[in-house]
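Colleagues,

For the teaching module next term, I've prepared a clean inverse folding example: a structure given as tokens, and then the sequence designed for it. I'd like students to try predicting residues themselves before seeing the answer, so please don't circulate the second half yet.
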């Protein structure tokens, strides 16, 4: 298997694959480890305060857990915690490559940054572009997963599992694609489900059972906003357009325009907006509420786990409102 390169969020993985290496999304490894509390303690022992984002701590601990030699960190377009986290990794002897998305979504600047990233890995922009069709064939299968989610044949939890893995293709695009094909063959044969249609917005929730609980109460989760973005499902004609269409690293108004389109296309009845404790994106909750006309439930969480009693009660009340036609 090719050597692994950690990534702190979605980056132009075409560069990594062109270099004969394999990306691994550190967020995904953190959650999939089954040892999230242990990993958080590792990060806190290394210097992270308890009053810092669990995702930042998890990313650091995941890099240490995998004993990685190299990490690509998004130092512009993610959170400010990333800067300090990358400094800690660098001090620990990890070769840190910083990549940034230009806040103004300038195409020429983004191309220059992708070129610099490619140069740092000893490949060319053209070589990275040549990898794009192979990865786009996998993204096409993820788009089918997403379409079947809208149709009510794929659950919100299943959608999350597949789309979140699109950020690194599970470090093996061909195997990942074959796994999706097997899943799709079964999912296409399912009957469609019905019920109020809910969008999960914001970063992937620390509440691992959120989608399952919602669906157990009779609603259909038809959108996982940021996991869909991490998988680059909006696509583009080339690398630059693909990563310009990625809403996560840019301003909130560009993100909300894309979200409004998806809400309309998926006939969403209500939104659950997950915000992470100690994360700047929580400040944007008001802007999201102003931008949509459907009911919004905002849930805040911190360390990974299941919905606690208070959050569960709020979810049940929200679903009851949706089932009564959105009347509070």
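(Answer key — instructors only)
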């Amino acid at each position: 298997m090719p050597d692994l390169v950690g990534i702190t969020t979605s980056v132009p993985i075409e560069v990594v694959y062109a270099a004969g290496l394999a990306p691994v999304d550190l967020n995904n490894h953190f959650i999939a480890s089954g040892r999230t509390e242990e990993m958080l303690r590792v990060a806190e022992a290394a210097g992270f305060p308890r009053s810092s984002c669990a995702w930042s701590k998890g990313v650091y601990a995941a890099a240490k857990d995998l004993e990685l030699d190299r990490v690509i960190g998004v130092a512009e377009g993610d959170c400010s915690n990333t800067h300090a986290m990358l400094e800690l990794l660098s001090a620990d002897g990890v070769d840190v490559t910083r990549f940034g998305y230009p806040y103004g979504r300038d195409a020429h600047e983004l191309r220059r940054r992708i070129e610099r990233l490619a140069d740092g890995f000893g490949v060319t922009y053209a070589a990275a572009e040549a990898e794009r069709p192979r990865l786009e064939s996998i993204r096409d299968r993820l788009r089918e997963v997403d379409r079947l989610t809208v149709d009510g044949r794929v659950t919100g939890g299943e959608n999350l599992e597949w789309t979140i893995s699109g950020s690194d293709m599970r470090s093996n695009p061909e195997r990942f694609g074959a796994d999706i094909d097997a899943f799709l063959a079964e999912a296409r044969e399912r009957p469609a489900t019905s019920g109020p249609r809910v969008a999960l917005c914001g970063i992937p929730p620390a509440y691992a059972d959120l989608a399952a609980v919602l669906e157990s109460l009779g609603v259909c989760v038809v959108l996982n906003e940021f996991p869909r973005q991490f998988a680059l499902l909006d696509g583009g004609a080339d690398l630059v357009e693909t990563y310009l269409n990625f809403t996560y690293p840019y301003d909130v108004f560009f993100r909300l325009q894309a979200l409004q389109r998806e809400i309309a296309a998926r006939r969403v009845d209500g939104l659950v907006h997950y915000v992470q404790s100690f994360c700047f994106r929580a400040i944007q909750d008001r802007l999201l509420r102003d931008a949509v006309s459907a009911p919004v439930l905002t849930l805040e969480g911190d360390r990974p786990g299941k919905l606690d009693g208070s959050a569960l009660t709020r979810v049940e009340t929200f679903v009851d409102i949706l089932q009564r036609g959105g009347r509070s």
